[in-house]
């Protein structure tokens, strides 16, 4: 080994030792010795995915958890934090390919394919912990040993030197003095990883326009960082940037080769965390059980920091003999967290055991009000890290801040960072938002008008000195709706929660008095419910529903049920609205009798987003919704969930194939699955799928009693396996396999295609038949058809010869304007009355098609449907007689893609016939 190699080895080993010592312990709350835990002993693997969810910048971070839940039931492949620089999978997304295409030509051979990784995640989700785990595993020689140096430059510390000038080597020595003997000329020969943690905390202005290539040139911190990210400085170096979603736009997309997203704990990981955090197994089980009783708390526990807060509160409360009602809302949880921290402070620093919460709060009132003011001021500015100048604004000097962080160790943090300078923050953004709401409510109660001007001021008149609480809450709601990034969402939620008298009583001592705000609560509840929902972004609407929950308003479930029962199929639901609606279903904490996915007018992706609602219903009707094998994975995860209420599931007429059925069987064989009726009619199932079903039923035989496999191709062996299984277990009583055969393996509706011809005995004399009675045209001369009792005499209509039952599908092509119908044979033929016109009576159903719109009619009830942007003149009709549905689809001329227009739901009592009404200068052809 040469002398230079020996020096390099010594520097590397010293660097690893320094990092190991710094990152081997995890501090929950504040970095005090008594709070430290070995990172490897408590670390719980987080769920990290490649790519990102769309629209995240428009949601408050807590509401982005629903997006995380949706990703978990998709086929996204999780990534370990230690693998984020591993090459991309061969199945790259369009986004990834686009990012890689921006790399400079010829560079691929000299550097890894993944150079710059941007990791997003909401506050407290575990970004920094993931960074620490990566560093510790590297320093201890476990992973990524091809990297020579891991250089950690957190933005919160870079802020302290943002006005200074450095060479790259000089900057690194500020953060890693153990590298003082490293020759800067060696940088290009080393594999270096730069970690920029917490971009959202940056107070630097990142300007990517100035170029710098020399590591020895002195420049500003901003220019050094931007050129490292761009690859102008050390192009062979790896870059890892972490940030909250709203800050990600500071890095132009062309400079990142991979985007990952930390979406927190899955359900099993939550339980793993609580069992590691709470040593008493019985107590851990009680905490887990309680968390599961509240959907809101359970979802929040996807955030590791919230798990810690919940464990702190519940562990303390469950130890008490006279435990009162355990918190079920966020406001209750955070209020108890505050009380517990004050109690601990009293015991530790004053050696007093004080149990009266009023006295506890009274003794710390001055401290907490100053912190609350700081929280509110900085929340409005979007800051979660504070410096000395921020503290002075709230009459807090540095010595006070040190005292505060010492006695409020789990609420407010002081950290010594670069050059022993101090930075301050609350332990989590949500704690800051809770304190901010507390401050605003305190000011409201004490009529501090100056502090409330942000919500109440009007340029034309002064702020009134006396005003009811509901005015403040209304203004706060309005402000939150104006915020594009949802900055005030959780703050507003806490503000509504604190307005509840029961929560005010918990805060007595800090608040001078409590108020019975029932009148104000009723008024703000009514205001929220009466808001124009069409004008409210879905994410904001979700948060307003949470505000009702915080005020113990139980109307959430009523709103969901009303929406479901309304059958509001006319409204086109965007992807965001589908997300919001699914979230409403999940948060209602009530079981729906029926969830019919077909009733919601949206895209295929929109329907997939609504799938989580299956988790909270007894009957799920998902037939004909263009679901795929991946959707089966989502449904299977529901079937495996504890206490799942789902008893009837209809997946008919989705091209699931055997692979989708195999996914589904993972749920069916789980002992938690209590499904009684499963319909897989027309799902392209063959004997392979039947084998999977038989195996699943053998593993969990005690519940399923009806399995519909009609319109599939099970084959003799598939039928035999299912029959054997049916004989072996008493619950399964019915397995229909009728209408089977190879023809049923055709995808889509084509397997139900029927050959129709127009009936000359029914055609009106103003209509002309041609092309072998497969085309009808409106003409201006009467045709010389013979008299016939079935001929339409008034309306220009015609029926087909063939009677229709079972499942049937046909397509038509129109020229001009026409009406496409199904009707009973007994419809009247003579005259111009409603009883003769298709769609104007109880015997017929029609879709009127023009170049501007569609109109669906039955028994004189009209539904106007705007044209889809990609409309054509070709219409497909699918009849499922036994299920009582007839559906109309527009068919694109280029891809033959079907787009749903309208579905009629009814109970058919006799065979149906296809029929048509044709307008002047128009025609209809059977395809």
Automatic annotation (TrEMBL):
Keyword terms, alphabetized: ATP-binding, Cytoplasm, Leucine-rich repeat, Nucleotide-binding, Repeat
| MF term (GO), any | ATP binding
Identify the stretch(es) annotated as Disordered: 92-112
Q: Which Pfam families match?
A: FISNA, LRR_6, NACHT, NLRC4_HD2, PRY, SPRY, WHD_NOD2
GO CC field: cytoplasm
Occurrences of domain NACHT (ranges): 115-247
Quote the InterPro entries the UniProt record gives.
Answer: B30.2/SPRY, B30.2/SPRY_sf, Butyrophylin_SPRY, ConA-like_dom_sf, Leu-rich_rpt, LRR_dom_sf, NACHT-assoc, NACHT_NTPase
Q: Residue limits of the B30.2/SPRY domain?
A: 736-927
Using the UniProt record, give the first listed, main subcellular location. Answer: cytoplasm
Gene3D superfamilies xrefs: 2.60.120.920, P-loop containing nucleotide triphosphate hydrolases, Ribonuclease Inhibitor
Domain of life of the source? Eukaryota
Q: What is this protein called?
A: NACHT, LRR and PYD domains-containing protein 3-like
Q: Which organism is it from?
A: Chanos chanos (Milkfish)
For this protein's source organism, the top of the classification is: Eukaryota, Metazoa, Chordata, Craniata, Vertebrata
């Amino acid at each position: 080994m040469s002398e230079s190699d020996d020096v390099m080895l010594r520097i590397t080993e010293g660097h690893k030792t320094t990092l190991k010592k710094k990152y081997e312990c995890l501090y929950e709350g504040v970095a005090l010795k008594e709070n430290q835990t070995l990172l490897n002993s408590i670390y719980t693997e987080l769920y990290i995915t490649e790519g990102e969810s769309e629209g995240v910048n428009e949601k408050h971070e807590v509401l982005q958890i629903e997006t995380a839940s949706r990703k978990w039931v998709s086929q996204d492949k999780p990534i370990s934090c230690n693998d984020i620089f591993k090459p991309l999978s061969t199945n790259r997304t369009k986004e990834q390919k686009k990012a890689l295409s921006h790399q400079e030509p010829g560079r691929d051979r000299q550097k890894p394919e993944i150079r710059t990784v941007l990791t997003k995640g909401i506050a407290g989700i575990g970004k920094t912990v993931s960074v620490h785990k990566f560093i510790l595993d590297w320093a201890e020689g476990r992973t990524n040993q091809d990297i020579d140096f891991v250089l950690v430059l957190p933005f919160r510390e870079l802020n302290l030197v943002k006005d200074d000038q450095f060479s790259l080597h000089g900057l690194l020595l500020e953060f890693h003095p153990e590298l003082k003997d490293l020759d800067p000329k060696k940088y290009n020969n080393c594999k270096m990883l730069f970690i920029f943690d917490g971009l959202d905390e940056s107070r630097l202005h990142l300007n990517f326009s100035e170029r710098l290539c020399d590591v020895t040139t002195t420049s500003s911190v901003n220019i050094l960082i931007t050129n490292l990210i761009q690859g102008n400085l050390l192009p062979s170096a790896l870059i890892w940037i972490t940030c909250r979603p709203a800050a990600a736009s500071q890095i132009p997309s062309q400079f990142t080769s991979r985007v990952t997203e930390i979406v927190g704990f899955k359900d099993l990981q939550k339980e793993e965390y609580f069992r590691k955090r709470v040593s008493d197994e019985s107590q851990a089980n009680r905490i887990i059980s309680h968390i599961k009783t509240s959907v809101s708390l359970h979802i929040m526990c996807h955030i590791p920091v919230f798990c810690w807060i919940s464990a702190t509160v519940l562990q303390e409360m469950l130890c008490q003999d006279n435990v009162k009602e355990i918190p079920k809302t966020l406001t209750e949880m955070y209020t108890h967290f505050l009380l517990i921290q004050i109690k601990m402070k009293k015991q530790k620093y004053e050696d007093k055991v004080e149990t009266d919460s009023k006295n506890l709060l009274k003794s710390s009132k001055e401290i907490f009000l100053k912190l609350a003011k700081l929280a509110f001021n900085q929340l409005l500015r979007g800051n979660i890290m504070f410096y000395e100048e921020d503290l002075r604004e709230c009459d807090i000097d540095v010595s006070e801040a040190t005292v505060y962080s010492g006695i409020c160790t789990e609420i407010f943090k002081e950290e010594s960072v670069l050059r022993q300078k101090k930075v301050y923050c609350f332990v989590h953004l949500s704690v800051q938002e809770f304190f901010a709401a507390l401050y605003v409510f305190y000011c409201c109660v004490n009529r501090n008008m100056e502090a409330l001007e942000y919500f109440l001021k009007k340029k034309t008149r002064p702020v009134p000195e006396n005003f009811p609480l509901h005015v403040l809450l209304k203004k706060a709601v309005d402000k939150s709706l104006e915020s594009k990034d949802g900055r005030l969402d959780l703050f507003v939620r806490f503000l509504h929660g604190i307005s509840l008298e029961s929560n005010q009583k918990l805060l007595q001592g800090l608040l001078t008095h409590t108020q019975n705000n029932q009148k104000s609560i009723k008024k703000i509840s009514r205001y929220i419910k009466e808001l124009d929902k069409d004008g409210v972004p879905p994410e904001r609407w979700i948060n307003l529903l949470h505000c009702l929950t915080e005020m113990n308003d139980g109307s959430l479930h009523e709103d969901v049920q009303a929406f479901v029962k309304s059958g509001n199929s006319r409204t086109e639901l965007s992807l965001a609205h589908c997300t919001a609606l699914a979230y409403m279903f999940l948060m209602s904490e009530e079981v729906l009798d029926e969830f019919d996915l077909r009733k919601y007018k949206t895209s295929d992706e929109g329907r997939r987003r609504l799938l989580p609602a299956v988790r909270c219903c007894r009957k799920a009707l998902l037939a004909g919704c263009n679901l795929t094998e991946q959707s089966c994975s989502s449904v299977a995860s529901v079937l495996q969930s504890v206490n799942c209420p789902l008893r009837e599931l209809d997946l008919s007429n989705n091209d699931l194939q055997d692979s989708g059925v195999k996914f589904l069987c993972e749920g069916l064989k789980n002992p938690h699955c209590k499904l009684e009726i499963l319909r897989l009619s027309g799902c392209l199932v063959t004997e392979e799928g039947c084998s999977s079903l038989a195996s699943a039923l053998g593993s969990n035989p005690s519940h399923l009693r009806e399995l519909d496999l009609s319109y599939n191709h099970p084959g003799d062996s598939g039928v035999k396996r299912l029959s054997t299984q049916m004989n072996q277990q008493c619950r399964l009583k019915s397995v229909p396999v009728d209408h089977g055969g190879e023809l049923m393996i055709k995808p889509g509706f084509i397997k139900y295609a029927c050959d129709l011809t127009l009936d000359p005995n029914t055609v009106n004399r103003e209509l002309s038949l041609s092309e072998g009675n497969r085309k009808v045209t409106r003409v201006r001369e009467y045709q010389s058809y013979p008299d016939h009792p079935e001929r339409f005499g008034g309306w220009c209509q015609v029926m087909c010869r063939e009677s229709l039952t079972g499942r049937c599908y046909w397509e038509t092509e129109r020229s001009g304007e026409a009406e496409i119908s199904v009707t009973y044979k007994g419809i009247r033929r003579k005259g111009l009355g409603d009883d003769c016109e298709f769609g104007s009576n109880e015997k017929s159903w029609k879709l009127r098609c023009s170049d501007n719109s569609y109109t669906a009619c039955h028994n004189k009830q009209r539904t106007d449907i705007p044209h889809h942007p990609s409309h054509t003149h070709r219409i497909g009709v699918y009849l499922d007689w036994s299920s009582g549905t007839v559906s109309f689809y527009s068919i694109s001329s280029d891809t033959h893609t079907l787009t749903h227009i309208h579905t009629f739901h009814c109970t058919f009592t006799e065979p149906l016939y296809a029929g048509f009404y044709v307008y002047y200068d128009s025609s209809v052809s059977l395809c």
